[in-house]
Amino acid sequence: MRLPIAISEQSAEPLYYQIEVQLRALIISGSLQAGTLLPSIRELASQLKCSVITIKRVYSDLEAEGLLRTKQGTGTYVSHVEKESREEQKHSVVNEAIDQLLEAAERVQCTKQELEMLLKEKLQHYEP
Amino acid sequence: MGEYAIELQDVKLTRDHFALGPVTLSIPKGYVTAIVGPNGSGKSTLFRMIMNILKPHQGSVTVLDQQLNHHNDDELKQLIGHLPEEATSFDDFLKGYAKAQFHAKWFQNWNNETYQRLLSILTTRDDLQLKKMSKGMRRKFDLSIAMAHHPKLLLLDEPSSGLDPIAWKTMIEVLHQYMENEDHTILMATHIVDEVKRLADYIVFLVDGQVLGTYEKDELLQSWSTYFIEAPSGGTFDPHLMPGYCEHKVVSSGFYEIVCSNSFEAERWLEGQELTVRSKQILELDEILFQHMKKARQYAK
What we know:
The complex is a heterodimer.
Chain A: H1 15-28, H2 41-48, H3 52-64, E1 68-71, E2 75-78, H4 83-107, H5 112-124
Antiparallel strand pairs in A: 1-2
Helix pairs in contact in A: 1-3, 2-3
Chain B: E1 4-14, E2 19-28, E3 32-36, H1 43-50, E4 58-63, E5 66-67, H2 73-77, E6 80-83, H3 96-106, H4 112-121, H5 135-147, E7 153-157, H6 165-179, E8 185-190, H7 193-199, E9 202-207, E10 210-216, H8 217-223, E11 225-230, E12 245-252, E13 255-260, H9 263-271, E14 276-282, H10 285-300
Parallel strand pairs in B: 3-8, 3-9, 6-7, 7-8
Antiparallel strand pairs in B: 1-2, 1-4, 4-5, 9-10, 11-13, 11-14, 12-13
Helix pairs in contact in B: 4-5
């Protein structure tokens, strides 16, 4: 199986982080359903042209969050994510992004009114 | 079982024209480690020492938890697959299958099915005399022979020399499959940047017989960048202040090109400066090697 994950070499974000964010989103959004068998560590590393050290870190981080579970000898599966905790996870992902947005706005000294206007503009075109 | 497949402890070997070491190096079990270095840096010498063909003048070599000596040579070689840099020539007159039969006698774990499967995946054959094989055909045959006894450790010296791009891709796949078993380890020497990118988990820089560093591949490749930076109009700044600074060029007044070995720190630092980052380029592996060599040679002076 090929996972729709794209990494950017130029990005200042570490590779493991880039992969983690995307894989987490795939699980939380339900694109990857509970029980799905993920590629082996070596396989995903070769698909993404990164090292197994990076993938090991991603799998173990997401396992610690309860999104994945590893069965000895058979592989790594997507865990069953409860509906409430899915909502919770969803909000925490978005909240984190909003914090970054606020930081960026502060850096360029964007006023509250400006920010509100920009957000409203974007929201008009938001159709998930 | 230890966590390292190979351990070199304070190993030194001196010849008239070449000195290796002292080298202390650990190759982790279950991973692919690439030794990268220019010609004559000691890569093949290192391989020959691990194969117990060359004896170091000092220090010890431990392979798969056993320190090399006279008594465990046979036993250890059963567990190792070795693809030397140059194909052997003493057996040129043999047909491929005759050489395979010899290996089958010698290696207890030789598996003919695996051997045949490798020949077919790699699209090579064994019904020719070795000297009549083309370079690529011979390379693929030698790799099949090196892997047919299910070794725990694969030593690959410039594995892709003589392979065309399609054969190269197949070889990479074969090696990835081999690594699916977490008990397997690959140590390879290579010049080819793409090969390191596709295969390696760890990178060791070996230059002039010295280890200049061991790194996690992804971390290393993300750490090195060139930044094009503009100081505020008319101003200047001291590029040496940037974290991970290696070298710089002044492109024009107030405009700098800076090579840096710590992108994460550098970018955090840049956020707090009145500087404009015009662009960023990551360094390729060969450029990173070059920076290491420059630093080492400066230091040697």
